[in-house]
């Protein structure tokens, strides 16, 4: 998609707005590398310094990450998401998992009361995609689809504030899930979410909330007591 050339007045602000729009619209998704500085200069028809200033501003706000020798990458879709990612990047993984569990449990309860037929069709489709992704054995594929499924559960709550906060936490939650899943999809760590979808479909708020609040694997593994030593053979 070609970028529109901004008017000459207030160029810096217009370029920032133009680049932000590419991010928030999904033209430049999280994880993607944006066009190089010379490419942006040509597309926008502005001076190199103006482009550089806009990119630095968005990097300061947490939307972009400038990596010397590699390029500039999208790391968040909003300023709030960028702030959250920077602020909690080093947080205790169990605390991230507990936050996710709390948000999703509340959202699932609301989803059971407010879901529409369209919500249910989307959840059914994403549940099937999630199972297919698990069967591929590719951890990153599963992480992306699982994240989309959980976002759809929260969206089905029809609480706009909760949905936006959860979406802003998305990058942080995907990082947690990558650590939780690991590089290999192991059968003993698979969680079936069919009961969650059925509880939402049935309007059973208590069951939906309980299913969504399932205690995260990472914390279970970290806190599980070690097995007692085997008895001596002698």
UniProtKB/TrEMBL annotation:
- Note the CDD domains from the entry: WHTH_GntR (cd07377)
The protein's UniProt keywords, in alphabetical order, are: DNA-binding, Transcription, Transcription regulation
- Stored InterPro entries: GntR_C, TF_FadR/GntR_C, Tscrpt_reg_HTH_GntR, WH-like_DNA-bd_sf, WH_DNA-bd_sf
Give this protein's Gene Ontology molecular function annotations: DNA binding; DNA-binding transcription factor activity
Q: Which residues form the HTH gntR-type domain?
A: 9-77
Any transmembrane segments, and where? none
Q: What is this protein called?
A: GntR family transcriptional regulator
This protein's species is: Streptomyces solincola
The organism's taxonomy opens as:
Bacteria, Bacillati, Actinomycetota, Actinomycetes, Kitasatosporales
